[in-house]
Amino acid sequence: MTTRRDVVIIGGGHNGLAAAAYLARAGLDVEVLERLDTVGGAAVSAQAFAGIDARLSRYSYLVSLLPQRIIDDLGLSIRLAPRRYSSYTPVPGGDGGLLVDNHDQAATDASFAGIGAAHDADAWRTFYDGTTRLARALFPTVTDPLLTRSEARAAVGDDALWDALIEQPVGRTIASTFASDLVRGVAYTDALIGTFASNDDESLSANRCFLYHVIGGGTGDWNVPVGGMGAVTAELARAARLAGATLTTGAEVTALDGDRVVTYRVGDIEHRVAADRVLVNASPRELNRLLAAGDAGGVSSASRVAEPAAEGAQVKVNLLLKRLPRLKDARIAPEAAFGGTFHINELFTQLQAGYDAAAAGRIPDPIPAEIYCHSLTDPTILGPELQAAGAQTLTVFALHTPDRLLTADNNDRMRGELQAAVLASLNSVLAEPIESLLMTDADGAACVETKTTRDLEEALRLPGGNIFHGDLAWPWLDDDHATVASTPAERWGVATGVDGVYLCGSGARRGGAVSAIGGHNAAMAVLDERSGA
């Protein structure tokens, strides 16, 4: 027996929930099919350590790209807490470091001078004034139909800025802007989160990554979701349910055919549901797998969805500590150093050396990484006893650990080696070993959890562990493709080439990160089609 819906959404991650809320509020009969037992996908909180009252943002951890427009439209009760400090970066092998204080320009200038980079302080402000102008011009467009490249350039209104950050490798721009190896590295890391690229990346994949990291909210600020990432997902799920959407968990989708009939299993029972529109909150690779399984329904191989290159390049390590560690730089309070993004071994030269090592098949030594302490800004993710005891969480995101280093056979061993490399890199800038501060769980195990790219692919079906479902695209249409954007799905950047089937997740143009933009834009495409727009 085949049931019928107006819209079926494959995947209950945050984008799928956002799309469901918008479409159900418009009066459509919507069902979300989620393979796991809970919705949220990568935007979830979890009790990662047995018997420990701490709910960590297990995969995604900070929010920048979620537009206020979506929060307001859906009536979401979400609080995003700003961080006073932008970043702290210890000088490798030394006892000093660069502390960028968002609230104290004089202190920041003194910190630049303290690492011998006084002249870079003015360059820093000028550079980030430029990214802010870019953000103010481009971020409001991400919840509208796509601009053309020429329109986006005109919106920015500064050809020199456009050329520096869009047309030439951003690493080249950074190298010509700053003199300090350390300052260059701090600036370039935004081009590498989730992207494997050299410092002089001619493909401009680093530029696209950098752009998405600096335009969020029209400011580029990355904020802490109060209550953890699961609080964001819970609000989106609430909005979808209140609007009347059906959220079905434990539903393993096995096929999608050309008549938009979705086959899925709940337990041992197979179900089929037909829909006028199918939104896919999964990667293009996963969509192609479902289309191949549904070939009997008439989807030809020529209709397969284009798959961007998809290789993740990160390892994530979650830690629960008895307290924050002491730094080699005794002049900096740990609460300040870990109050923003803590960069370790991310000199510009170290980033290039790390890329070269990984490209040659080796784990970088030292491994470049950055750290976030959620609990300093938002202690609510810890139970009362942990808060009273001074416990803190650390999330380490290590760069230049591409999926090519791992296989199904070596993943367990490599997970251990990568974790050891991350802890060693962290220890190189601390006054005490991080291992001595790890709490132990109810089973007596150290509270440390490591996720490789293979772990992400297995748990969340992210292709190659790529957190964006594939290489990011520019958030506009090329001028020579603008005339091709003749349908709402193409104008909103969610088309797949398969009739009535749209991407609504990170694989959509302007997808990636916890933004709900992909879900919003797919929903708008459906509503435009129904209205004949």
Automatic annotation (TrEMBL):
It comes from the Bacteria. It comes from Microcella alkaliphila. Probable oxidoreductase that may play a role as regulator of mitochondrial function. InterPro entries: Amino_oxidase, FAD/NAD-bd_sf. It holds the Pfam family NAD_binding_8. Residues 186-288 form the Amine oxidase domain. One of its GO terms (molecular function) is oxidoreductase activity. Signal peptide: none annotated. One of its GO terms (cellular component) is cytosol. This is Pyridine nucleotide-disulfide oxidoreductase domain-containing protein 2. Interacts with COX5B; this interaction may contribute to localize PYROXD2 to the inner face of the inner mitochondrial membrane. The lineage of its organism: Bacteria, Bacillati, Actinomycetota, Actinomycetes, Micrococcales.
